[in-house]
Design a protein that fits this description.
With 243 residues, this protein is α/β, with parallel strands linked by helices. The strands form four sheets. It has a seven-stranded mixed β-sheet, with helices on both faces. A four-stranded antiparallel β-sheet has the order 2-1-6-5, with no helix packed on it. The longest helix is centred in the middle third of the chain and has 14 residues. It is globular. The protein starts with a strand and ends with a strand. The structure holds S-adenosyl-L-homocysteine.
Length: 243
């Protein structure tokens, strides 16, 4: 398990290889110190004290390999909150990309299968799966537009250029009451996706959301929104199978 070193002002260092000394801006920590138990204080050669603990899922998740753009966590949170994903859920995801969304969901759900059409990205997802130690994530080097093999699915997440092409396969794979969530950066994609949903009698469009998250500086009496602008990620369209 990777270890984390925490500095006083909140900065964390991720120690991937515990058999080697680790260098930080505060000096280096000796490899033998990584054998100490969680919560131990360790000192660098510059006599600065750091706290040692074992990384958790989110520490590891932040360090996965990224090939295509991954979905931000504010959007993952909305998917989880709106669909009630739980340890009983069966999920299908496409395109896999870097496997970020699929991995996040696999950490919560019973089983996640992700479809990724590109072999190079498929291999990156395999690496990330191993790094995160996920045994319930299945990766298929397949085109989701040509079919979904899973049945009785609770949630299908789509992060694809033409998500409307996945509606027919998704409709067959979903259980009644199951959700589709489509994530698209542009409104023409949302329009084409929703118009196709409206032509499909057993699927209903619940809502389309844009999640805007604003971080604040909190420093004594300097308490105000951070000055950087809010960037755009994508729109989330929620659909439910009703019959
Ligand atoms: N949600 C992912 C990022 C997806 S990027 C993450 O969080 O990591 C979109 C991906 O869809 C790309 O990797 C692309 O290769 C893949 N893709 C495009 N068309 C596809 C298709 N028809 N079937 C499966 N994957 C597809």
């Amino acid at each position: 398990m990777p270890k984390i070193l925490l500095a006083k002002e909140g900065k964390t260092f991720f120690v991937k290889d515990e058999t080697k000394d680790y260098h930080t801006q505060f000096g280096f920590v000796k490899a033998k110190d990584f054998k100490k138990k969680d919560g131990s204080k360790v000192k660098t050669n510059m006599d600065i004290e750091l706290t040692l603990f074992t990384s958790n899922f989110i520490d590891d998740y932040k360090r996965i390999k990224r090939a295509p753009q991954i979905i931000p966590r504010k959007d993952v949170a909305a998917i989880v909150a709106e669909t009630g994903v739980s340890k009983k859920s069966i999920i299908v995801d496409a395109g896999g990309g870097s496997g970020a969304l699929a991995s996040f969901l696999a950490n919560i759900a019973k089983q996640v299968t992700t479809y990724e059409i590109r072999e190079d990205f498929y291999k990156i997802i395999q690496k990330n799966k191993k790094f995160l130690n996920l045994t319930n994530l299945k990766i298929k080097n397949k085109n989701i537009y040509q079919g979904i093999e899973e049945k009785n699915v609770d949630l299908i997440t789509l992060d694809l250029p033409s998500p409307w092409n996945a509606i027919k396969p998704a409709e067959g794979a979903l259980k009644v009451g199951g959700f589709i969530v489509s994530y698209s950066p542009t409104i023409p994609q949302v329009m084409d996706f929703v118009s196709m949903i409206e032509k499909t009698p057993n699927l209903i469009h619940l809502k389309t959301l844009e999640i805007i998250q604003r971080e604040w500086d909190v420093e004594e009496r300097k308490v105000r929104p951070k000055s950087q602008p809010i960037g755009h990620s994508g729109f989330l369209t929620f659909v439910r199978k009703v019959s």
